[in-house]
Amino acid sequence: MSLVGKKAPLFKAPAVLNGEEIVESFTLADYIGNKEVMFFFYPKDFTFVCPTEIHAFQEKLQEFEKRGVQVVGCSCDTEETHLAWLMTAKDNGGIEGVTYPLVADSSKTVASNYGVLAGDWNYSEEGELIFEGAPVAYRGTFFIDKEGVVRHETINDLPLGRNIDEMLRIVDAWHHVEKHGEVCPANWEEGKEAMSATRDGVADYLSKH
């Protein structure tokens, strides 16, 4: 079930801040009323596709920050594993240099609440409790506004990496909607013409394109 238009599930969980500090009770609630959040899940630490995305978010971090958006990552690994990976050099497959928060969802409750857990607990025919599927998160991305409402979500399967520039485009589109009260047509980018949500406004836009 989509979370778009609904309040983002809040939580308290361990996280690593600034690439070096473990905190026990990180929460998205600290940003509500102050910043928007680009909250993304990735499957697992010390893997191959995941660091490319994590570094890509870091490379664009200033672009998110100048738009008033806090980037937060999350996986089902422990905070200790996050820290070990953050202390591993990029040349060795690590994510050294990443400064935005990485949440440790070892209980898998955050991933479950956001609908991105790639498996679930079930009982076998013998009555044994087993986990079916992968005990990791899909590549879910959630753009959360200042009121704590999810305005955009995408969920990629495990092998499919994200386009970080598309995440920035979503932020720009939302800001345009908020500022001008217009809606953004297909392939809209910052600086391009948007359109009025009225029938006349749509007709006027289409007549020019």
UniProtKB/TrEMBL annotation:
Annotated InterPro entries: AhpC/TSA, Peroxiredoxin, Peroxiredoxin_AhpC-typ, Peroxiredoxin_C, Thioredoxin-like_sf, Thioredoxin_domain
Principal subcellular localisation of the protein: cytoplasm
Keywords assigned by UniProt, alphabetized: Cytoplasm, Disulfide bond, Oxidoreductase, Peroxidase, Redox-active center
GO biological process, one term: response to oxidative stress
PROSITE patterns associated with the record: THIOREDOXIN_2
GO molecular function, one term: thioredoxin peroxidase activity
UniProt key word Cytoplasm: yes
Transmembrane segments: none
Thioredoxin domain mapped to chain residues: 2-176
Subcellular location: Cytoplasm
Catalytic residues as annotated in Swiss-Prot or TrEMBL: C50 (cysteine sulfenic acid (-soh) intermediate)
Pfam families associated with the record: 1-cysPrx_C (PF10417), AhpC-TSA (PF00578)
Gene Ontology annotations for the cellular component aspect, listed alphabetically: cytosol
UniProt similarity note: Belongs to the peroxiredoxin family. AhpC/Prx1 subfamily.
The protein's role, per its UniProt record: Thiol-specific peroxidase that catalyzes the reduction of hydrogen peroxide and organic hydroperoxides to water and alcohols, respectively. Plays a role in cell protection against oxidative stress by detoxifying peroxides.
Protein name: Thioredoxin peroxidase
Organism in which the protein naturally occurs: Fulvivirga imtechensis AK7
